[in-house]
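Worked example 3 (structure in, sequence out).
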């Protein structure tokens, strides 16, 4: 079966609820989710999906939650990117690592250092692209885009091309599929996820909390969505 998905975005929801259900602190759920993201990316490599994007946290997630949870999340990001920068699978696959959002504005220096290091070490890789949305809101992205275009005197006409070139996600292709985990009777978007790039994306919602979201379930979703007819507005 042909797989049409070139770019898949995952909203890894349910980490905190997974932890609460087991009587754990929220950060334990985030830690388990971090490990699960590695498993999913490895499956994506196996399936030869070139672009995988994880929403690691919205700006509100990383500014309005408790100080302890935010610190724990930043520590998890720090450890994750440190591991990524040394991961032989990443380097063997020539996977380009990137982080998009306002993380440079709010993350601790140690966390930023590890993220920048992973980006730098993989910047010349072009086989696969693993992107993390960190302190990212789609509404912020569109507002920033509009401001850039308004301030650029060289732009005489606003076109789709100009909008794309001024987005945070300018180097990413359109989103083919958005998977949101942890949706129990509440399938929804959050903070305008990549609203320009996801205009024609397929959507899949699963009740599975992200720490329990296995590579096998991920693969089954890809197979199921590959059967859908894509109309792309026609």
């Amino acid at each position: 079966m042909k797989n049409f998905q070139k770019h898949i975005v995952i909203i890894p929801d349910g980490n905190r609820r997974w932890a609460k259900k087991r009587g754990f602190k929220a950060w334990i759920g985030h830690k388990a989710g971090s490990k699960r993201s590695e498993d999913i990316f490895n499956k994506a490599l196996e399936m030869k999906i070139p672009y995988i994007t994880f929403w690691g946290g919205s700006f509100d997630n990383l500014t309005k939650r408790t100080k302890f949870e935010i610190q724990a999340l930043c520590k998890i990001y720090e450890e994750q990117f440190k591991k990524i920068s040394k991961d032989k699978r990443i380097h063997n696959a020539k996977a380009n690592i990137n982080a998009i959002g306002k993380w440079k504005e709010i993350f601790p220096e140690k966390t930023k250092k590890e993220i920048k290091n992973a980006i730098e070490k993989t910047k010349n890789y072009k086989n696969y692209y693993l992107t993390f949305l960190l302190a990212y809101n789609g509404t912020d992205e569109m507002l920033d885009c509009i401001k850039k275009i308004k301030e650029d005197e060289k732009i005489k006409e606003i076109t789709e091309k100009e909008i794309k070139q001024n987005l945070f996600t300018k180097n990413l292709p359109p989103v083919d599929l958005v998977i949101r985990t942890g949706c129990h009777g509440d399938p929804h978007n959050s903070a305008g996820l990549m609203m320009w790039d996801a205009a024609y994306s397929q959507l899949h919602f699963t009740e599975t909390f992200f720490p329990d979201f296995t590579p096998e379930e991920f693969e089954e979703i890809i197979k199921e969505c590959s059967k859908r007819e894509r109309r792309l507005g026609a």
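Notes: The beta strands are 7-11, 51-57, 95-100, 128-134, 177-180, 202-205. The chain has one domain: 7-222.
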